[in-house]
Hints:
Elements: E1 2-16, E2 20-27, E3 31-37, E4 55-63, E5 70-80, H1 87-103, H2 111-126, H3 132-146, E6 168-170, E7 175-176, H4 179-183, E8 189-190, H5 193-202, H6 217-231, H7 239-248
Parallel strand pairs: 3-5
Antiparallel strand pairs: 1-2, 1-4, 2-3, 4-5, 6-7, 6-8
Helix pairs in contact: 1-2, 1-3, 1-7, 2-3, 3-6
Amino acid sequence: xxxxxxxxxxxxxxxxxxxxxxxxxxxxxxxxxxxxxxxxxxxxxxxxxxxxxxxxxxxxxxxxxxxxxxxxxxxxxxxxxxxxxxxxxxxxxxxxxxxxxxxxxxxxxxxxxxxxxxxxxxxxxxxxxxxxxxxxxxxxxxxxxxxxxxxxxxxxxxxxxxxxxxxxxxxxxxxxxxxxxxxxxxxxxxxxxxxxxxxxxxxxxxxxxxxxxxxxxxxxxxxxxxxxxxxxxxxxxxxxxxxxxxxxxxx
Length: 251
């Protein structure tokens, strides 16, 4: 058993017994790490105020290979991305960690994905409200790409020809379709002209250049949700964004 320090984002917490918690961390060094924080639910716990979802932390743990739960020894807060007073901002941040929790499996180091996650969480925390949907779309399409599932947007994903004028999108085929392939796709979607242009741009968005922008963010969030559900078995949709849509729906 070795003492290790990891930089990580806290994805979620579960109660364990009467006083402890299981903390699921996404770390730069080891990918997903499941840890036990003993006594974390006690009022005077050393983890109080620090071990919270949407916190980027420096965690010290006793690490043992092939053990399901690692023992968390200490934790220091680096940055908080939580915005409990801003439901929309919180929902988009939760959607980002929700996606990583479902798309990543096991202890697999992926520094690019970690940097992408912390980058989008930082942008969501400070970008204008009208950029949040585009930030989420850009993160989703780029995260899928880093894991080998970047949607094909400049050719037909079925046959490689020029994509059709209808802007048909086949989630199961992996992207845009020509008219002939689209005719064979029962579960295809149709992108608007602006939506397609925005999706192509967001797929290559430079996070250092400023907020993402899209006039069709609502459309693209739905397209990406279907796409991710099709290609990642453990992903069943964004619960956080569904709550946001329900909250925003006219009554």
